[in-house]
UniProtKB/TrEMBL annotation:
This is DUF1003 domain-containing protein. Keywords: Membrane, Transmembrane, Transmembrane helix. It comes from the Bacteria. Pfam families: DUF1003. The chain crosses the membrane at residues 58-81, 93-116.
Length: 182
């Protein structure tokens, strides 16, 4: 069986003129009967460093309604505090220069963290897509192997049918000859 898998894999590689690294991995796994079943998400998440996990958590929180609502609340409180409550002694009077500085710093820090998280998620998606491709390729090879097995069985049945028909013709010929002689 292993030899037929190798033949099938080499036959498939001939039809795919530019077989890449993932195709070679699938062929190797198929011929050795290794399973392509690993949890891409778990493997990827296990390899993250503490900083990468923290960046992901910050990006998740920074893109949530909770963050937006808290941020709107803080902005509203800042404006109310500096405009109405501390009218004569406000530390950041109306055009709110200090508030703009803080918002700019927050955006300057938050944007790269979100981009790092997005880049990691893109890499995770690429790994998942590569895994899906390998599984699909292996499935295609398995289907080809099943087709070959069915073809072999069909050929055997045809040859058995032909031999049975030849035997029937032989018997009919004998019956006809007996009828002619009698």
């Amino acid at each position: 069986m292993n030899n037929s898998n190798e033949q099938l894999a080499s036959q498939f590689l001939k039809t795919c003129k530019d077989a890449g690294e993932s195709e070679q991995k699938v062929m190797e796994r198929l011929t050795k009967r290794l399973h392509i079943s690993h949890n891409t998400n778990k493997n990827f998440d296990d390899s993250l460093t503490l900083g990468q996990r923290l960046a992901d958590k910050i990006a998740i929180f920074g893109g949530s309604w909770t963050f937006i609502l808290i941020f709107i609340g803080i902005l509203f409180a800042w404006i109310v505090l500096n405009t109405l409550i501390l009218a004569n002694k406000s530390f950041d009077p109306y055009p709110y220069v200090f508030l703009n500085l803080i918002l700019s710093m927050l955006a300057a820090l938050q944007a790269p963290v979100i981009m790092m998280s997005q880049n990691r998620h893109a890499a995770k998606d690429r790994a998942a897509a590569e895994h899906d491709y390998e599984v699909n390729l292996k499935s295609e090879l398995e289907v080809l192997a099943l087709h070959q097995k069915i073809d072999v069985l069909r050929d055997q049945q045809w040859s058995e049918l032909v031999s049975m028909q030849q035997e029937q013709i032989k018997l009919l010929t004998q019956v006809l000859e007996k009828n002619k002689t009698s």
